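Lab notebook, bench 4. Still working through the backlog of constructs that have no structural model yet. Next entry is a single chain of 791 residues. Request: give me the structure tokens for it.
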Amino acid sequence: MRIAVLGAGPGGLYFAALAKQLDARHDITVWERNAADDTFGFGVVFSDETLGGIEHADIEIFDAMRREFARWDDIDVHFRGSTFTSGGHGFAAMSRKRLLAILQARCASLGVRIHFRTEAPDVAALAADHDLVIAADGMNSVTRGRFASTFAPDLERRRCKYIWLGTDLVFDAFKFYILDTPAGIMQVHGYPYSDQASTFILEMHEDVWRRAGFTEAAGLVPGQSDEASIERVRGLCAEMLDGHELFANNSRWTTFATVRCQTWRHENVVLLGDAAHTAHFSIGSGTKLAMEDALALAACLHEQPSVAAALIAYEAERRPVVASTQRAAQASLEWFENLGQYAGQDPHQFAFNIMTRSRRVTYDNLRLRDPEFVAGMDEWFASTQDDARETCPPMFQPFRIGRLELANRVIVSPMDMYSARDGVPGDFHLVHLGSKALGGAGLVMTEMVCVSPTGRITPGCTGIYTAEQEESWQRVVGFVHGQTGAKIGIQLGHSGRKGSTKLMWEGMDDPLPDGNWEVCGPSSIPYKAGSQTPRELDLAELAEIKDQFVAAARAAARAGFDLLELHCAHGYLLSSFLSPLTNQRTDQYGGSLAGRLRYPLEVFDAVRASWPEDRPMTVRISATDWHPEGLGIDDTVEIARAFAEHGVAGIDVSTGQVVSDEKPAFGRSYQTPFADRIRNEIGRKYGVAVIAVGAISSYDDVNSIILAGRADLCALGRAHLYDPQWTLHAAAEQGYTGPGAVWPDPFAAGSRRPQGGRADGPRPRLELIRAGTPRTAHARWHPALVPGAAR
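Model written out:
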């Protein structure tokens, strides 16, 4: 094939070398606008995993790189006079300039033509004259812009400023230095890349950058230069530099932009590396991703029968990997943007927090890499707890919400079961909630229990507005208290405009075909097309609904519940008062955030006054509407502050479900960053417990979240549908047998993990049937439990 490569960075050169090596008949030409010895930046970082792929793909390139490597296993965190070291990380770095020289030499030896100081011909002309065009022309890719209608790029610029420098101080590990300056918190990322120099990146939020005076030093005022800016950096970092020099290489303050494209292919033109995608430098992934792209693309071209098939295979192989890396990088990037909120953390917790910021490195992962580091963190965490046990996994330390003591940090999240008859919880609810309590969770929450018949979501929703309902709930509470060590909480709510709908498995949020009741809300805005238009509530109706909440709270107290949660999330009635998308009132219950908060706070105050003083109250809130005109985290911090000032004991931080056209950013633990901010900005200040919820499914994630201080407790829903004994199994998996994970006496024989093998032959195959697929008589999931069918 005739192949044109635009850009002689590591990605473009590595592809050219690999493709030529795989088939010497390829005619490959590389165009590069800069000189052969021009390079920007200092060191580039590789993980051991990436180096393994490079070694197998081209041993000559790997051997040449290996001779240049600066290697380290340790990451040092310097914070408030303390230094913490975590080992076992296995990274290597080298000079970017030396890497380019190695790749240039390899390309030359294989017969690849490289035109330096030469602008590439028009990409459309190249595409017409070549079988394949590789656009490795960087983050500011001209090719991506030329075919933007196909690639559909999205460039997201963030809120931190950073400058990339070098130093003749040779670090002995990867270094995080946290600087507490009069202007605010700054951070240095540093790592060695040779036996003579290290990369030195200073980063800070743009507000801190302005307060520190870098606007003048960055050339925004005539007469000033980058050198003046770098001189300020020398002064700020003098202590850590200890007389060593900083030096620049086209170094300027800049803002990171995350590049995402809907596709990387346009006919026979394909994007590679930063032209296709970027990931924040704090996880060291730019050159790594580009070279991995090159390796995959060269392999696909060699294996597939045509260019078109190869490009499809390349994107299919690489996109999931890149998406995963970008999610981790985004989490890391946002962590550093919000660094100031962690300034008050204990240095131990801060060190663990920064190590696990991307969610890719976790408690278990660190324990494998450096057992002593995690053991020290466990000891510190145990020492900070009022009712501390011996050192154990963080999830099994006890916790108090108000005066209520929980045996561990695990909550069974409220999950609507749609399985009641006339609002009465039956045997299903007894078994459902009882089994979760037997499974070891510290707190088991009911589904949203409705305060009136017209406050139900569906005809299958439970209530607590009749004597029969109260008696049935009392039976459930009695079982939990009598047979388990768990506590049980009730979540009270009113469906508002999202009521009078079908059961979830019959059509979630779809109106009933008949037998509808009138729905209501703060404003006459239907939830979605085809939904009922709610009646706008007047003042008398608001007072009546508040009284219904009070009556329900009193009934819940008589039934013996340990905790009451007020549902102010997910677009139900109280939530719909909070959001400007659903509340367009012009009276005292609308308008400003304070006005929209008024009615939920009135209901909270009335319920709190009716609920026993020694039993805590929590609220569930949606931290974002996932809509540009809706509530965002800044608003929700103020909502959390208001509830804290009114005496709430805990805040359960969920998101969304307020409007039907939301665009949530789903992913592992995707709601935890919202809980994180609320805990560190509100929870710690007011002594309010913060609960993280949403796609948390592993005990590893629970331990990581708790130990890093992102939340005090974790609520898991679907994980408990899949495995009602989730908490006890988590203890068994970690070898923990202490008081936070006590097996019921009848179950004690099963407290050890079963060993492999069966005396009675192979285990029969059991298919877990999901909604929408044929169900067999051998493995039928109850409709209410189907969300837990997928592991």
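Notes after review: The longest strand covers residues 153-167. Confidence is low (pLDDT under 50) at residues 757-778. Flag for follow-up if needed.
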